[in-house]
Design goal:
Two copies of one chain form a homodimer. Chain A is α/β, with parallel strands linked by helices and about 900 residues long. The first copy, chain A, has 35 helices and 31 strands. An eight-stranded mixed β-sheet of chain A has the order 12-22-21-14-15-16-17-13. An eight-stranded parallel barrel of chain A has the order 24-25-26-27-28-29-30-31, surrounded by six helices. A five-stranded antiparallel β-sheet of chain A has the order 1-2-5-3-4. The radius of gyration of chain A is 33 Å and the shape is elongated. The mean pLDDT of chain A is about 90. At the A-B interface, α24, α26, α28, α29 and α31 of A face α24, α26, α28, α29 and α31 of B.
């Protein structure tokens, strides 16, 4: 016996989504719930797969089952397909497991031919309706089933209207429509060398084949690749008796959501167009009515629809997106599916439904995707204002959406100016070819960052995300002229101090000021509630990366319960400190270096007091100096140009000598691959006096605060350890300093001493390293760089984005943790570390700490916490809860 | 009962080396063999360790056991320690398991005081002998036991001689010596506030304590650290009755080897000094006689000694280093130990002994350390000529010994000149601040390379080792002035074309021409034999890294049975090819790039024909292009200076535009961390036309040769794979090319397709990668870089050598494979790869392939072969045999 390829709507149910697709199960559920659904049936996804397996032929028995199911439909509708007197018309729609743009959508009115057309006209007494239905069928059949570009049909239709001097389709007469249908049939003949099939079964067969074929259409395939949807799912085909909303003013068609998809408010939300078919709503022939206006004309039908909507929402326990048609006062439900919604609505609907008792709090938490709430916390542009700017020609260019948020400000082309203006209270957008650590003091005072070069993990992007600033990076259309203080962008010239607006979420750059909306967490009551529920479910702690007290305070406000990474080197880049830092680096003797360090000590102590106080009661992990020292010196290339100029000009021999000497020093220090050079713990091993100063500053700060009754928990972190001996060396030297300071001050401080795990070798030898580390923190940025052998400074602009686009890599590993490679090392490190020190505190402080997929992995390998930029703390809290709940309920990501 | 701390010589045996030390077991063995050894005893290493454990006190019972053993010695010698009439004198010598410079050596004549001195004089009837013995005791006791710098004593002795106007100690009279002994006692009093002990037991006690103490002396501790000898071994103390070689011309002392330690020839080799004590031989008072001359005066004794020597060699089954003394015609053996020997001797002795049936062939192979034979194959300086150069003030400076071998040639400061001269037949030394791939064409024609910057794995070093050229790198004393064409080195000025000589094995640089010796493998019959035995024992294949036919031929001559790495990019750097390469790189369109590639195709095909033919019958692994393309362009910094000069001068606007455009292009291509940038397989993924050209060249070359009946086995290798999809992409594209060429030519070629494993992620996901790779080759240079996060271009000059010196790292991981980190990844990769593809061919082509310790590890993790530079092939063959034999006999490295 042949397999069952075809299910009547009443034979299916919601658990058969794999077989019947999304649309099919919705129709089945509604049918079985006794709701008014036109009779119909679904051809299974398995049939589609079998169709391809056996060389694009209908599977054995399928066509017979279609005909059988059709008889059932004919019986229930009291009409017959192809019957000249009482013709049954059909709609044929694709319906995969996941809704998929690019697949064949819908053919309406299937079953019309010369014969049945006359039957329809007689039956309805409406020849214009009949010819219009026929014209629509031929057009849709040509466009959708036969894949003839729609413009061929639209052009003819337009010519007809132009010829008659009318605007709307509805102004065309029966004869006009008749002629148009003939013309459409000619187009089919011309383009496909095919007569429009008079045989209605042939129509049906071809439509079903076309739905199947559309599964492997280019756009559908691309979409699946892009969305990581499996190619072996196949699509179902839904065949349903037509009902008509265009049978007069007691008829109509509409779409509605059971709640407001923009705000989440519990009101029926949608549109209704009297005397129209679904496609007319899309075509915008007339302005549709609000759904609530339906009760003014057809109160009973409206009440019935309200009840149906409620019933479906209760049934599915989620907000529904409904399609319906009213034919001569009778309601027909054509589709129900989970409604798409904005982030704001997602949060409100989830929290409301939990409060209504419709779903559990766990479900509510799982209903909101972590990345959705990202946008709820960054400033964003007012949508309408942005559209207006667009239409006013103020759009300048599009770059990489490197750090979300909207920013408006005056252009500054250098960091010093940005800092000056920013401190003076002017809103600033720092615009640079690219940024480097020298620019951080300016970035700190800016509202947003725009760069010409660099990818989503360039310096600009990383720092901006850390600071919660909007950033558009790699905007290659910019032509920046630093000397003139202006830039050219697609024909516009922007001068220093001109206003521009950046949308960091989309990468768009606009001229002028677009009004922004700045959401606050505490004002978003439902979000606060949802996150508090999430906190109850998660096992992972959520900490933040923060270098400054203001970031730490922001992180606390967003719910962080610790600082997982406080970078100490940014502190050295501030204008007044950099010269001392350079003095230290260029010192020829240990004594002169110590003198400079003595000047830096009170500054660092002040920094640490600030951040430890802001995080009173919580741990603060302070990472000792990490970047190569030459990053604090003027760039080699700049000096080279300067010295060459001085040499050729020959007008200032004294300056030439001075600059030449500096060039020589920088030249000795520069490295072929600074990422793998003299940095991290290697600095402390070679120049212990630097890290000793830093540890003294930390402990002195902690003691000062303790004496003021502030509860401090500093943790000292050594970066870039590759061999246990590096950590041993530093720990011995630095703990001597701790001891000495404690003795000087007569006070003890409780602190931890630990290391970053950011090199493969550290992960591979974690058991040994754990002997000297009380905590581990994964630096997954560097760990990804070394595990892949990819420099993040170079890769994104040079090849990484192409790799992702071409699916060589499934995702950008700097955004989403590579579980197989980097993750495997992390797992080894957790196991190795805890084998030596079972209570080892292990966390992550790389960029990945705020990425939901990565957070899930951190949960799975039993980290204690994730640490991310302050603005991503809520995302991480939710993602951590998702991970725990998915584990609890054994939910796998399903695509 | 107290532990046994003291063993009479007849109580020990050779298996007690841990307890009795090397010297002690030698004396025990000789005693038990019935050889004439003065009576004595050994205090154990355990006693030494216990001495320190309990706070520098003699262990319980030890002193009593010493006294007891002493009685035995007194009985056997018929003398008594401290006896005024018939005094026993003793020698006290340290003796650890491994001979260790820096430890207390020997105190002779212990037991003399005012009283016993007169006894000795009476007994011998020789007062000068008595006072001389006494003077020597006080001097040695002061210097060695009391640690008073020897120069204090030597100064007084010299003054005495000056005062008398004599040259030699022997010219001093009894009275002189008496006075000197008194002065020496004064020195002890002054420097140590101590009377020279009259109590002979006190002398013995102090001498034993001093031996113990010397275990933790600074030089001994440093030496152990340096040689990786464990600190908990402790030293033994040997106490032996004195015998005197200075009792007249029927007495004497000597040292001898059972074979010639320089050549390995089977002749007794050594020196003998009549009427002298051992120290006189060292002091060089008189010219010693050859050992064979002994038979002229004391034939019987000589014959006895020859027998003893033979007996000992047979007993120990190895060449022995003997010390002996003849006292009044009686032979006394004082020491036997395994004799140190030159590499040449080591090989000859091992092969001879195996042929003599004294040892097995396995033992013979194990007797020669692989690294010893390295020097046998590189050209080297004639030792005497080098000493002469040194004494003539021709030593210039010392750099890193980057690639062994001696080289003499004329200085060229740039690669083009070096190439020109080299091709013209002039011997050239290329001298550069540092080298880069641009210089390879010059290096190819040079005899040696000298650089100012860069470590032992800098470009210069790596290429030089690959080419078997001598290289001294990082010679920071050089002050090179490229524009003037000269360099200043420690006060010398060297101009272009001046001759210099480099010793790559020591890092020394000399002015002028030092004669060299160039050994040939085939002329070293014993080495050829030893290696052929080794080949029979090893499991690992030994292949070579070779980029040129001449290297391949050299590799074959040295016994390589495959090419594990043929780098294709060096071929592009040759003078006539570089412009085409640049044309290709700078191409704006695919078409212009293809045009350049079309020009490169026949050139590459020719290269491959050459190397495949040279290796006929063996596999040749050809690695597709690896370095970042910008390495083929002029350096950014050079262009920057050029453009700046042109800009400031303003005298050549056309050239400025041209150079400015090139600068712009190079600027776009340059990378922050080129090591982690757009290179390796990433190039082929992005620009498939490049690797497609290379594969076409390989297959066309192979077919051309096959048609000429040459047996070819090309293997195509993709570098820097991090994700299986990269390999999949390249394999699909490149196998299409193979297929196409085969079709065009109507011939099939058998070939393999594989990948390098040189990134941690590749090792971690080797199971996946193996789906598309028929072979793996470990690129341990890059794998070490990424696993450690260390750039080899930067690390050695910046911090790595300091790390090794300070024991942060046990060894330079670029020289000796880091088994724990990098090795762990390799092990995972072998297991992963073979899980997918059990017959997977796995090898190593990093620098480590020629390092004996690394070869051993490769054997342990079951690689199929190691591949190293041609000159290291013999080393690797021997190292591979060692690894197999050590595994077979379960021998561990013992230190």
């Amino acid at each position: 016996m042949a397999e069952k390829w075809v299910y009547l709507f009443n034979e299916g149910n919601r658990d058969m989504r794999d077989t019947l697709g999304g649309k099919g199960t919705g129709l089945a559920e509604m049918t079985n719930a006794g709701l008014p659904v036109p009779p119909g049936f679904t051809i299974t996804t398995e049939a589609c797969n079998e169709f391809f397996r056996i060389g694009k032929k209908f599977p054995e028995g399928m066509w017979e089952q279609v005909q059988q199911a059709l008889q059932e439909v004919e019986q229930r509708s009291g009409k017959r397909l192809g019957d000249a007197q009482n013709p049954l018309l059909l709609s044929v729609r694709s319906g995969a497991k996941f809704s998929m743009p690019g697949m064949m959508d819908t053919v309406l009115n299937l079953g019309l031919n010369q014969e049945t057309l006359h039957g329809l006209i007689e039956q309805t007494g409406n020849s214009r309706f009949g010819y219009d239905a026929y014209r629509r069928l031929v057009q849709m059949f040509g466009k959708i089933v036969l894949d003839i570009p729609g413009e061929h049909f639209e052009k003819d239709l337009q010519q007809a209207k132009d010829h008659k001097g009318v605007q709307a389709d509805t102004d065309l007469t029966t004869n006009d429509l008749k002629a148009i249908a003939d013309q459409f049939k000619q187009i089919i003949k011309q383009k496909r060398n095919l007569e429009f099939p008079e045989d209605v079964f042939e129509q049906l067969r071809m439509a079903i084949e076309a739905v199947f074929d559309s599964w492997w259409g280019k756009r559908a395939t691309d979409y699946r690749n892009n969305q990581k949807i499996s190619h072996d799912l196949g699509t179902a085909v839904n065949v349903m008796a037509m009902v008509f909303g265009n049978m007069g003013f007691d008829s109509g068609t509409g779409v509605a959501f059971t709640r407001d998809p923009a705000t989440g408010e519990k009101v029926l939300y949608g549109e209704y167009l009297p005397n129209a078919q679904g496609e007319d709503v899309v075509a915008g022939i007339r302005t549709p009515l609000k759904i609530s206006q339906l009760q003014d004309t057809q109160e009973q039908v409206y009440q019935q629809f309200v009840e149906v909507a409620n019933q479906l929402e209760r049934h599915y326990r989620d907000m529904q997106d409904l399609e319906f048609t009213i034919e001569h006062g009778k309601l027909w439900m054509l589709q129900t599916r989970t409604g798409k919604r904005t982030a704001q609505a997602a949060v409100k609907v989830a929290v409301d439904m939990a409060n209504e008792g419709l779903i559990s709090r766990e479900e509510a938490v799982l209903r909101v995707e972590p990345k959705q709430i990202d946008q709820l916390l960054h400033p964003r542009f007012d949508d309408k204002a942005k559209q207006a700017a667009q239409s006013e020609g103020k759009f300048l260019a599009k770059g990489l959406n490197a750090s979300p948020g909207a920013a408006v400000g005056q252009v500054a082309f250098n960091a010093n100016l940005a800092e000056k203006w920013g401190k003076g209270g002017r809103p600033v957008i720092l615009v640079r070819p690219e940024t480097n650590p020298d620019d951080v003091h300016g970035m700190l005072q800016a509202k947003g960052i725009l760069t010409q070069h660099g990818g989503a993990t360039s310096h600009a992007a990383v720092v901006a995300r850390g600071l919660g600033l909007a950033c558009v990076a790699g905007c290659e259309a910019l032509r920046i002229n630093l000397e003139e203080g202006e830039m050219h962008v697609n024909g516009h010239v922007i001068h220093e101090a001109d206003y521009i607006s950046l949308d960091g979420a989309t990468g768009e750059v606009f001229l002028g000021q677009i009004p922004t909306v700045v959401p606050k967490l505490e004002e978003q009551q439902e979000l606060v509630t949802l996150l508090s529920w999430a906190d109850g479910f998660r096992r992972l702690g959520v900490w933040a990366n923060a270098d400054y007290p203001r970031d730490a305070r922001q992180a606390r406000a967003f719910g962080a319960t610790g600082i997982g990474l406080c970078r100490t080197e940014h502190m050295f880049f501030e204008i007044e400190r950099l010269p001392i830092m350079r003095e230290m680096i260029l010192a020829e003797t240990k004594e002169t270096r110590q003198k400079a360090l003595d000047k830096l000590l009170p500054i660092q102590r002040g920094d640490f007091e600030g951040i430890l106080e802001a995080m009173a009661g919580y741990p603060v992990i302070i990472r000792l100096i990490d970047p190569p020292l030459h990053e604090f010196l003027p760039p080699y290339e700049d000096l080279l140009v300067e010295v060459t100029e001085l040499r050729v000009r020959g007008d200032n021999p004294a300056l030439l000598v001075e600059k030449g000497a500096l060039l020589q020093k920088v030249s000795v220090m520069r490295e072929a691959n600074p990422m793998l050079g003299l940095r991290g713990c290697r600095l402390g091993v070679l120049f212990p006096e630097i890290t000793e100063m830093q540890v003294r500053a930390i402990i002195e700060a902690a003691i000062n605060l303790k004496q003021r009754q502030v509860d401090v928990h500093p943790e000292i972190m050594i970066p870039l350890v590759g061999h246990v001996n590096e950590l041993k060396d530093q720990r011995e030297k630095l703990e001597a300093v701790v001891k000495q300071v404690q003795e000087e001050r007569g006070t003890e401080i409780s602190y931890k001493f630990g290391t970053m795990i950011e090199l493969p070798r550290a992960a591979l030898t974690a058991d040994e390293i754990a002997r000297y580390a009380e905590f581990f923190s994964f630096g997954t940025n560097d760990l990804t760089q070394t595990t892949f052998g990819i420099s993040r400074d170079d890769a994104e602009s040079k090849f990484l984005l192409q790799y992702v686009e071409r699916k060589i890599l499934p995702a950008n590993p700097f955004q989403q943790l590579d579980r197989q490679g980097v993750g495997q090392l992390m797992k080894m490190a957790v196991e190795g570390g805890r084998a030596t020190r079972p209570e080892m505190e292990v966390g992550i402080c790389g960029e990945h700490g705020g990425d939901p997929s990565s957070v899930e992995f951190c949960h799975q390998i039993n980290l204690n916490y994730v640490s991310c930029s302050p603005f991503r703390v809520p995302v991480a809290r939710l993602a951590a809860a998702h991970a725990a709940l998915r584990e609890k309920f054994d939910i796998r990501r399903d695509k």
